[in-house]
Design brief:
The protein is of the alpha/beta class and 315 residues long. The protein has twelve helices and eight strands. The protein folds into two domains: 69 residues, no CATH class; 241 residues, Alpha-Beta Barrel (TIM Barrel). The chain has an eight-stranded parallel β-barrel with strand order 1-2-3-4-5-6-7-8, surrounded by seven helices. The chain binds dihydroflavine-adenine dinucleotide (FDA).
């Protein structure tokens, strides 16, 4: 079966306004609403509470204020203000200073200069307060421009910023080499977007093989790379390679998403690896949660159960 099939199904659902309305109504409504597993809540206060719980388990974290594909500069400015407020709340609350951001939330689709300005407005106070800021990677339509914005920020001497790259894309080895040469930190992920076979691996084996190869390249030549996956075979391969190369455990980190494989998060931390949890929150959770559902067909059962429980079960 094609690896991309469930992704395609949830991608289609994610484009439906009707599904979005229904999901937004029921996804967080009950205590066990299906979206609650994957997001820390809708407000900064809920995110801070979730972040404290993650820290209490001895894990590192990065906070993502959900939002993407904004269409106006007003919306991009509002998202930037939310990140500035988040920085203040994190500093005041003693939460780990690490953020993840999508450039289309800051106006990449509106105008690149606006997006760069918004990023700089965030990176300045973030830098003063010792934050690290990771740019998430969105669909392949944005790969070039995301790298270009990243390199612009780097040339402007922002060094508290890194980038995610997707093993699924054929181009990624070149991009890894480009960022390794700069000395920038890369988060390696499999890739959450539906992409055509002309530019991406569409079978799981191809993605996994590319991930292994790129993880080795990052461990050999990268700067504080993040190996971001819940795939135990890839995690084991990374551990084995790092250990054979004599790489200290603080020279790279593992990263996983909030709500997924908490058992593995705990065991890796227990073994002395750096383990960072990506904690998303905010009202614009729909596309993020749809991507999570598309990654695992079994999640569909979980959604249906949650919707039935919310409406009192079968009648
Ligand atoms: P895979 O999908 O093979 O899953 C391995 C195992 O993990 C599964 O068997 C299951 O046990 C568990 N699992 C994985 N996903 C699950 C889910 N949704 N629900 C329940 N269990 C699940 N992508 C992107 O394109 N741009 C980005 O910037 C980022 N950023 C990012 C940050 C971090 C910290 C992580 C961990 C991931 C991302 N991703 C991402 C998402 C990434 O591309 C990928 O879609 C997911 O991590 C799922 O792939 P795995 O590597 O976990 O493998």
């Amino acid at each position: 079966m094609l690896y991309a099939a469930p992704k395609a199904f949830f991608y289609l659902l994610s484009r439906s306004r009707h599904v979005k309305r229904l999901a937004t109504r029921y996804g967080l409504s009950a205590k066990d609403g299906f979206a609650r597993r994957f997001i820390a809540g809708e407000t900064i206060e809920e995110a801070v509470a979730a972040a404290r719980a993650v820290q209490a388990r001895g894990l590192h974290l990065t906070l993502d204020h959900l939002g993407e594909s904004v269409r106006t500069s007003e919306a991009a400015t509002a998202a930037t203000r939310e990140y500035l407020r988040l920085i203040d709340v994190i500093v005041a609350g003693g939460i780990e200073r690490n953020l993840s951001i999508k450039l289309t939330q800051l106006g990449l689709d509106v105008d690149r200069a606006t997006c760069v300005d918004n990023m700089r407005r965030i990176l300045d106070p973030a830098g003063r307060h010792g934050f690290f800021v990771r740019l998430d990677m969105e669909s392949s339509a944005y790969t070039d421009v995301t790298l270009e914005v990243f390199e612009t920020l780097w040339q402007l001497e922002h060094r508290n910023v890194g980038l995610a790259l997707q093993a699924s894309l054929h181009r990624t080895e070149n991009d890894v080499r480009r960022l390794n040469a700069l000395g920038a930190s890369v988060r390696l992920v499999k890739g959450a977007y539906r992409e055509p076979a002309s530019i991406a691996h569409v079978r799981r084996a191809g993605v996994d093989e590319a991930f292994r190869r790129l993880a080795r390249l990052l461990l050999d030549e990268g700067t504080l790379p993040a190996i971001a996956t819940h795939d135990e075979a890839l995690i084991d391969a990374t551990r084995a390679y790092a250990s054979a190369a004599g790489l200290p455990r603080d020279r790279f980190e593992f990263e996983m998403l909030y709500g997924i494989r908490r058992d593995l998060q705990a065991s890796l931390t227990g073994e002395g690896y750096r383990m960072r949890v990506y904690v998303p929150f905010g009202r614009e959770w729909f596309p993020y949660v749809m991507r999570r559902l598309g990654e695992r067909p079994a999640n569909l059962r979980f959604v249906i159960q949650s919707l039935l429980a919310d409406r009192g079960g079968w009648r």
